[in-house]
């Protein structure tokens, strides 16, 4: 596998407990090897006006071949009408860490 076979997939939630539960479910499902949950401030356009709210960002480390399944599962479990699901390719990473991500995620 090369670095390009891995992604960091990001979503957000409006509640820390819900964000942690979502992260745990996705890792338990083996769709991601790791999830980091941390507070962010989001400013975005929604319902015809600018919104400004506290959210919890979830960064999920996974393989690129799991992106569609991970996205579908986030959408299924999420309470937002339109949850953020953005994937960024890993340009570089330590071989040992990426081997771990590969070993700890579900085989399609």
Total number of strands: 4
- At CATH level 2, the architecture is 2-Layer Sandwich
**What string gives the helices and strands in order?**
EHEEHEH
**The first-level CATH class name:** Alpha Beta
Distance between the termini: 15 Å
Q: How large is the count of helical segments?
A: 3
Q: Roughly what percent helix?
A: 25-40%
Q: Tell me the major beta sheet.
A: 4 strands, antiparallel
CATH topology (level 3) name: Alpha-Beta Plaits
Give the class from helix and strand content and strand pairing: alpha+beta
Strand order, largest beta sheet: 2-3-1-4
Rg estimate, integer Å: 14 Å
What number of domains? 1
Strand content of the residues, in percent?
35-45%
Mean pLDDT: 95
Which regions have little confidence, pLDDT < 50, spanning 5+ residues? none
Q: What spatial form do the alpha-carbon principal axes imply? A: elongated
What does this structure look like?
By secondary structure, the chain is an alpha+beta fold. The protein has one domain (3-103): Alpha-Beta Plaits. The protein contains three helices and four strands. The protein has helices at residues 16-28, 67-77, 95-103; strands spanning 6-13, 34-46, 49-63, 86-89. The longest helix has 13 residues, at 16-28. It is elongated and about 45 Å long.
